[in-house]
Design brief:
alpha+beta, 2 domains, 3 helices, eight-stranded antiparallel beta barrel, Lipocalin
Length: about 180
């Protein structure tokens, strides 16, 4: 009887520890220390992403950001879907004004966290993820990224708890 109680207590303690780690893992995603919003604005090319239903069949994906008068960010995501241009407009609000690295992006009734987790000093590349680790994008100011930078970002993403095996490269040759 005593062994059963100890085994049950150990199982409960183990489950509680796992639940605590899973719950707190979302909040422990580190973002970049600061984003100069004006410098972040402009066109970004999607180099790779975790597959999402809203991007199914997308190629030549880009995101264009511009500041609104109210301090929010206008977002225009574009791609070519089955040979046809497709775009959606949204709005992002900064949720961490100290760093500008955590945003909430809304597209109509859909919204999500947009956390900037890597950013080149010259703003030539960025990596954006969601703290639940189910969304990840690698972005560049150019339609292609050299393999050294790409591999560096893969290592960074894996170290932050993202399953980089899920990443798919985005076709950017749609001319």
């Amino acid at each position: 009887m005593k062994k059963e109680v100890l085994a049950t207590s150990a199982a409960v303690a183990g489950a509680a520890a796992i639940a605590w780690m899973v719950t707190n893992r979302e909040e422990k995603l580190e973002t970049v220390t600061y984003v100069e919003l004006e410098q972040y604005m402009g066109k970004w090319y999607e180099i790779a992403r975790f597959p999402q239903s809203f991007e199914k069949d997308c190629a030549c994906s880009t995101a264009e950001y511009s500041l609104n008068d109210d301090g929010s960010v206008k977002v225009i995501n574009s791609c070519i879907k089955k040979g046809v241009p497709d775009n959606v407009e949204g709005k992002a609000t900064i949720t961490d004004k100290k760093t500008n690295s955590k945003l909430k992006v809304s597209f109509g009734i859909f919204s999500g966290k947009y956390w900037i987790i890597a950013l080149a000093a010259d703003y030539s590349y960025a990596m954006v993820g969601h703290p639940n680790r189910k969304y990840l994008w690698i972005l560049s100011r150019k339609p292609a990224m050299d393999s050294q930078t790409y591999n560096y970002l893969l290592v960074q993403a894996a170290a932050k708890g993202f399953d980089v095996r899920k990443l798919v490269k985005t076709e950017q040759d749609c001319a």
